[in-house]
Amino acid sequence: VDRWTLLMSSSRVSDSFLAGCVSGCVSRSVIEPLDVLKIRFQLQYEPVRKASLSSKYRGSLQALQLISKEEGYRALWKGMLVGQMLYALYNSVQFSVYEIIKGNISLGHPHGAHLVGFVSGSAAGGVATAVCHPLDLMRTRFIGQGEPKTYPNIYKAVISIHAEQGLRSFYKGLTPAMICIIPQTGFYFGFHSFFSYVWSDVLFSKEFHCKWRTFISGAMAGIASKTLMLPFDMTKKRLEVPYCTNYCK
Length: 249
Hints:
With 249 residues, this protein is an all-alpha fold. 72% of the residues lie in helices and 0% in strands.
């Protein structure tokens, strides 16, 4: 029985690893332009408002048009290769660690699943962030750079960043990243568990199954967790790009 349980557990972790890899690549391909906008806004010191004449980016539509005009529409997918590597690895590690920890924690409380989701998600997010931070830093710099490019390709980016402070350069902004992602991931899985519970046990009967439950619960959990921790994410982005020449101007 123990061997069978171990086999099923290993299979579940492998499935989570593969599912996280595929879902990360597909989802980031679709929303990459929005992430480019978010990072450009975060790296800009001036306020993102229409009334601010000194700001380069004053709104989402204006920023999309300006980036496309100055750098071409392909700039909306800057850092795509590094981003795919980042999110494939990040989601794979995150979901695998989440399944491992969740499978070894149990609480007798009726709503203990929400707390288990939070604890497991926090640990999974912390491990995934520590593993993937160098890729996140490179992606931020690829997206933030204008024309002419400071980093024309991954190889030159690695060499240039390493020349700053050695390996430590790849972990700039790791502290706020950990402060941000550990509770954020915990909130995400906790909120997801809570919203799924509300959907199945409060709004609808347990016999009612809807294919949109996972999508809606995930979307609401993502919005809630991201909103709570956004200030730390902005701090991380500013530390990852320690200067603004060819970035914010």
